């Protein structure tokens, strides 16, 4: 068993970096699109400075609908779109498409929830001082919510790591794909345990880094 594991080390190394590649792409997309969606969900809520119930309801419905679809089903549903976008349906680049779609609404809800923890008195004081909506978003919401947003990024990244393992079912590459091809199909428990340990270590490192960064920037 040990000999087979040693022979697989190059593939383990490749699979690890494939996992990093697909989750980092998905995380970047989630932040770029999920952050503004989360902001819109918050500022258009009842009683806020950009209250708009139709926009809030439409965006909220789309986000809830996407989040209600189990990732493995979403993965299959997005195969035609993935093929259209990247030209194939296998490999880490293809897997990053479905990961991104799953991560965007997840992160958007985290952003909205994080903003709800901000003292509304600060927002009201900014409005009274004549601050524009953009100034409130930039100087109050994003500034005060930084520790919570870092924690949100951490949670999103950990979920993406778990989802990336499922992407191996359709040949998405990464550690999950290796576990299925060599561990499950070949009944090699050593490979299965090794891939699980790799994923656990990766998640622990991400959580530690997220907690450390969040505490460092929390000035409260």
TrEMBL record:
Principal localisation: membrane
GO cellular component: plasma membrane
Transmembrane spans: 20-43, 55-81, 93-111, 148-170, 190-210
One Pfam short name: BPD_transp_1
Entry keywords, A to Z: Cell membrane, Membrane, Transmembrane, Transmembrane helix, Transport
Record carries keyword Lyase: no
CDD domains listed in its UniProt record: TM_PBP2
UniProt-listed GO biological process terms: D-methionine transmembrane transport
Subcellular location: Cell membrane
Topology of the protein relative to the lipid bilayer: Multi-pass membrane protein
Residue ranges occupied by any ABC transmembrane type-1 domain in the UniProt entry: 16-210
Keyword ATP-binding among record annotations: no
Similarity comment text for this entry: Belongs to the binding-protein-dependent transport system permease family. CysTW subfamily.
Protein name: Methionine ABC transporter permease
Biological source species: Bacillus gobiensis
